[in-house]
């Protein structure tokens, strides 16, 4: 009478043993594929690093991505949102899993001194020779995407469903994801059940990853404030309306929005990143432009920031006697909502990453950051799409220990000396491939 329970116990044990063997085999296959490709990944990364392209100028990068996806059997559409690329690999019934990599670089002069340092210049705004560099790691992100495409194509026996890979332009300006959606991404690609993205982060070693549920990245908006004035000779400011002075007053007034209007329990940032006015020492100009960047997590705080900017700027203009027809203008250039990792997808990805990389290589992740992302805006037409953001370490082996024990902060993103440690390339490819396959295996 004990035969059935005994058989049942044996069946469970055999199933568990088979599942563990399958997981070990998958880990080994992913590791092997990435390991054999690692020299090529390094070469691709260096080529991308030496040839950075700014927002909506990523023509060479997108062409490279399109060629690579076609070689792996993906259906490919180019020119989405000007320079975006999407590839679809259909592999039987199952969920639709989308992975995005951003392509754009920054208008910054690189000073790393690396043998593959960028010395490229291009036209940007009013500068025909603007230095350009990958000072945020998007060259690594594109490299991951190319290897993920190859790994997933070669491991089709390990997953079932539809994989959508997206190479997105203009993340740095927070415009690219929305541009792709508005330009018909979903007339080509199916609605995603899950949307995944990853980013290098230099506070962790290059053989590790970090992820955390809840708030991860702040909402952001880029706003230009145009302050008209009445120009004239620098010797007679009394017969002008000086937009330089008005701009300076506005910049100082903005500081009270955060310190006196926003609840101190809610994080918020208002940065004036540029103040542009005038061309000569002795000419009071007709216009000043302030380029603002906002960050928030609570939408009510976002509205407070907008209301405060309008109130301060209009008040300055009125105080200086500007007529109603020459009041300030407020131009929103790009916007993204806060990025939040849900618990179910975070837990699933964490388990997959620990299996692939090892328990000690999967870190909890830093508290919510005031940096921003826009990849989740790819899912803006579909509020039920789950999103997941993974942070991939890109620092030296001792970087995190030095930060915790000695308070030594590494060179961070958007710095002229920012550099990605090369082992990051293999770590990211392994981490992302295992995570995507895990989402295909959900029951």
From TrEMBL:
Record has Signal as a keyword: yes
One Pfam family it belongs to: M20_dimer
Keywords attached to this entry: Hydrolase, Signal
InterPro entries the UniProt entry points to: Amidohydrolase, Bact_exopeptidase_dim_dom, Peptidase_M20, Peptidase_M20_dimer
Peptidase M20 dimerisation domain: residues covered: 225-312
Signal peptide residues on this chain, from the entry's feature table: 1-21
PANTHER family (alphabetical): METALLOPEPTIDASE, PUTATIVE (AFU_ORTHOLOGUE AFUA_6G09600)-RELATED, PEPTIDASE M20 FAMILY MEMBER
Protein name (database record): Amidohydrolase
Organism: Pseudomonas schmalbachii
